[in-house]
C-alpha cells in the first residue's frame, strides 16, 4: 500500500489555519509552480544540467511540503540528491498529476 498523496494531519492543520479562499490560492500556486518546475526538470534532464535539475526539484519540494503533499515532496527531495534522470522525472511527473487530482478532490 502506498502512502496517501496528502498528509491528513498536515492538511487538517492547513484547513483550520487558513480561510478556504487562501487555502485554494496556495494550492493553485502549487499547481502552477509544479507545472513550471516539471518543464524545468524536463529541460534539465534533456540537457544533463544537474544544477538546473536540483533548483527545480528544490522548489517543487518546498511547494509540495507547503500543501501536505508528502510523497511528491519526498520524491523531489530525492531528485535534489541525484543527477537528472528519466526515471526520477517519470516518477515526479506521475506524482504531480496524482497530487493535482487529490488537491482538486479536497478543494471540491
From TrEMBL:
InterPro entries tied to this protein: HPT_dom_sf, Sig_transdc_His_kin_Hpt_dom
Residues recorded with modification Phosphohistidine: 58
Keywords associated with the record = Phosphoprotein, Two-component regulatory system
Give the organism the record lists. Answer: Sediminicoccus rosea
The name this protein carries in UniProt is Hpt domain-containing protein
Does this UniProt record's set of keywords contain Phosphoprotein?
A: yes
Report the residue ranges that make up the HPt domain in this protein: 19-108
Cross-referenced Pfam families: Hpt
